[in-house]
Amino acid sequence: MDFWPKHAIFPGMSRKLLFWISLIPIFSFGCAKPTPIPLTPITAQKVLAYAKDSEGKLTLINAWATWCKPCVDEFPLLLSLREEYQPKGIYFLFANVDFPSEKNQVIRFLNQMGVSFETYMKDQNDEEFIDGLYEKWNGSIPAFFLLNDSGRVLEFWEGETEEAKLRAILDRYVRKGEK
Amino acid sequence: MKKLRLTFVILFFLGFSSAFALDVGAPIPRPSHSMKNIDGSLVTLGDFKKEKGLLVIFSCNSCPWVKAWESRMASIGNDYSKKGVGVILINSNDARKVKQDSFEEMQKRAKEVGFEFPYVVDEGSTVARAFGATKTPEVYLFNAEGILVYQGAIDDHAQDEKRVRKPYLLNALKSLVEGKEISQTKTKAMGCTIKFSDPSS
C-alpha cells in the first residue's frame, strides 16, 4: 500500500480506507444502470412544432404501438432507414400511442431495439391527437406522415409498409429537395 | 419517364391511400353481400337492418383497442338489438395473416364476451373496402332508411370505461331510437389497421 500517497485533504483517513473508497466509482461504473431512454410525452401540436423547427428538413412521423404487430415488425427497418436518411435531410419522429399504463413496456421494447435517441409517447386524448396531427387520419396504426418545415403533410399512409415503397417515397423527396 | 412516373403514382395510391371513407348521408354499401356468421348461417347487412336502423362495427379478435372496448360493444349491442336496431360485428382481417382472427377463434371470442348478435367473416375484406373502413374498431350507424347517421368511435376512453366522458355511440343510438337528431355524427379514436386480404387472393 506504500504506492498510495497520504491524502492531503483527508490526512486523518487511513490509506487503506482511502484506497477502497477510490475504487467505488470504478465498480459503480460497471454496475451502472443504462441511461433511461427518453420517452417524452407529446401532443399533436408539439409534433407539428418539431416538424416546423426542422429548418428546411422533412420530418417522417411514425405513429406506432408495442402491441401493433406491423409496427413492431417494421421497427428495425425504420431504425436503419433513420440512420440512412437523416443525413439526407429527413428526420424521423417516433410517436408511440400505447395506453399510458404500458409506458414501461414501451421502454423495454425501445431498449431491446437499441434505441438511444429521444422518442415520444402520446399524451393527449385520441380525438385531439388524431385531428391535431392530420385531419385525414382516422386513428389507425401504423401510420406515417411526411411533413415539411411548414408543418404541411406531403405524404400520409397507413398500414405496414414495404421497404421498397418507403424508400421510393423518401428518395423522391430527397431528389426533389422538397422544403 | 412519364410512364414510369404514372406507374409510381398509381402504385402509390393503390398501396397507401384509403381511397375513400363512407360519409354521413351515404346508403348501406353492399346490402345484399352474404357473409358467414359464427353460427354457420349466411347473413347480409340488408337482412339485419331492423325498424330503427343498423349498427355495423368493424372488429376483430387481435386488436388491443377492440379488446379494451369489446365488453362495451357487447353490452351496447345486446341492449340496442332489443330496441329495434340490427347489430352486426364484421371481421375483415385476413385470417391467413392473423391467426387469432380465424373462424374458430371468432366463435370462441363471441362466446367469451357474450355477443348476442352476428359476428361475421368478411371474406376477401370486400365489405370493409366497400365501406372504406380502415381500422378496428370502427362504428357505422345507419337509420331506418339505411342512411349513415354516425361514424367513428365507441367513446372517448378505450382503456377505462369509468373515465368515459363522451359516450359517442350510446348518444347516437339513444337519439336514433328516440327519433332525435344526432348531435355528433363523426368522431375518431385510435385503432388497428384492418389486415386486408390481398385483392388477388
Number of strands of chain B: 9
Roughly how many Å apart are the termini of chain B? 32 Å
- Gross morphology of chain A: globular
Helix count, DSSP H or I runs of 4 or more residues of chain B: 6
The number of E-state strands of chain A comes to 7
General description of the model:
The complex is a heterodimer of chains A (179) and B (201). Chain A is an alpha/beta fold and 179 residues long. Helix content of chain A is 42%, strand content 20%. Chain B has 201 residues and is of the alpha+beta class. Chain B has 6 helices and 9 strands, in the order αββαβαβαβαβββαβ. Chain B has helices spanning 2-16, 45-48, 64-80, 103-113, 126-131, 168-178; strands spanning 35-37, 42-43, 53-59, 85-91, 119-121, 135-136, 138-143, 148-152, 191-193.
Secondary structure elements and pairings:
The complex is a heterodimer of chains A (179) and B (201).
Chain A: H1 15-31, E1 39-42, H2 44-52, E2 58-64, H3 69-85, E3 90-96, H4 103-112, E4 119-122, H5 126-133, E5 140-141, E6 143-147, E7 153-158, H6 163-176
Parallel strand pairs in A: 1-4, 2-3, 3-4
Antiparallel strand pairs in A: 2-6, 6-7
Chain B: H1 2-16, E1 35-37, E2 42-43, H2 45-48, E3 53-59, H3 64-80, E4 85-91, H4 103-113, E5 119-121, H5 126-131, E6 135-136, E7 138-143, E8 148-152, H6 168-178, E9 191-193
Concise synopsis of the structure shown:
The complex is a heterodimer of chains A (179) and B (201). Chain A has helices spanning 15-31, 44-52, 69-85, 103-112, 126-133, 163-176; strands at 39-42, 58-64, 90-96, 119-122, 140-141, 143-147, 153-158.
Please tag this protein with its features.
heterodimer, A: 179 residues, alpha/beta, 6-stranded mixed sheet, globular, B: 201 residues, alpha+beta, 7-stranded mixed sheet, 9 strands
